[in-house]
Design brief:
single chain; alpha/beta; 8-stranded mixed beta sheet; 4-stranded mixed beta sheet
């Protein structure tokens, strides 16, 4: 999720305690003191425990997205490699454990040795990725602990003059951005790339509403634990006093915006003190904190997104079992 309203710095906040993570504290302050809908940035769902819970979500029967992503990469990695002749370096934005990436790396390394840069803000995920993919013949792994764009700039600067760069943005992560921030982000990615580079973009497609909702509200309540862990993280890292049991997970579909929204709903009227921001936050009964957006695309929108952000759609592969697409976008 990347809602632009949270990127503005409100200097009216009291001085934040610098013993805490300043960026996390400020984003929590901005999100929970907004007029109207309270919000928290989805990137903060992925602390060490959150990353473990998300990995569990990806194997749930209701969550077909990751399996569709993996099927497409396994079936079409050779075609993807053929579309990018010559030596290639690979950078993956938000690599996680890199489990889906093996097929791509093997396909490219079968032609030329390559350097792979997993990029993630979670050191735990990067270490798991390195261990999971270590030993693929012809692949040198160089993890980058950084944000998407910072890591991509580093990866682009490290490739040789004769190498093109393939950027992987899998799992429909682009769906976590609102409409305009998604396009700004794609343009920022494009500005780092040069002629001949490419972006492999995973996008989850619109499907029957019950299937979409079940993927974000599973019967085992793993997604609920993933969402509620964000409040527990505020308690652990920012001196929050959330009673996590007084909140419940909610998934809803916004038809007008074509997105699944995850919320945390307050079961009761309550106040919560957060030491790092020196604030007490009031919640009405039934009031929610919006924690994540997952936009769903129609195929025509993928081509439009490419054109609007300076790419050319060169190829697209669609999974039929769980409607999902991998789109290969080229520069030049």
């Amino acid at each position: 999720m990347a809602r632009s309203a949270l990127s503005k710095i409100d200097m009216s906040f009291p001085a934040l305690d610098l013993t805490y993570d300043l960026a996390f504290a400020r984003d929590v302050a901005l999100g929970l003191t907004k007029s109207g809908q309270k919000e928290l940035l989805s990137k903060y769902l992925y602390d060490e425990l959150g990353s473990i819970l998300f990995d569990a979500i990806t194997v749930l029967p209701e969550y077909g997205l990751t399996r569709a992503d993996s099927r497409l990469l396994e079936r079409h990695s050779a075609e993807i490699a053929q579309a990018l002749p010559g030596p290639v370096a690979v950078a993956e934005l938000g690599s996680g454990t890199g489990s889906k990436t093996r097929h791509i790396l093997q396909a490219f390394a079968g032609r030329h040795p390559l350097k792979y840069h997993p990029i993630d803000i979670s050191p735990t995920a990067l270490e798991k990725c390195r261990l999971a993919l270590d030993g693929i013949p012809g692949v040198e792994i160089e993890p980058l602990h950084a944000t998407y764009l910072q890591g991509l700039e580093a990866a682009a600067s490290r490739r040789s003059a004769h190498e093109s760069l393939l950027v992987l943005f899998l799992g429909s992560s682009i769906g976590n951005f609102d409409f305009e921030p998604a396009r700004r982000f794609m343009r920022d990615v494009r500005s780092i790339l040069r002629h001949g580079d490419a972006l492999l973009l995973g996008v989850d497609l619109v499907k029957a509403l019950p299937r979409m909702l079940a993927a974000y509200d599973d019967s085992l309540r793993v997604t609920a634990a993933f969402n509620l862990n964000l409040l527990a993280r505020i308690n652990r890292e920012l001196g929050g006093e959330f009673s996590v049991r007084q909140f419940e997970h909610e998934a809803r579909y916004n038809d007008e915006e074509s997105r699944i929204e995850m919320h945390l709903r307050s079961r009761v009227a309550q106040t919560v003190r957060i030491a790092a921001i020196d604030r007490t936050i009031r919640f009405e009964r039934g009031e929610t904190i919006w924690t994540e957006s997952s936009y769903k695309f129609r195929r025509s929108e993928v081509a439009d997104l490419a054109v609007q952000t300076g790419f050319t759609l060169r190829a697209e592969w669609v999974d039929k079992e769980w409607p999902f697409a991998e789109a290969l976008l080229r520069v030049g």
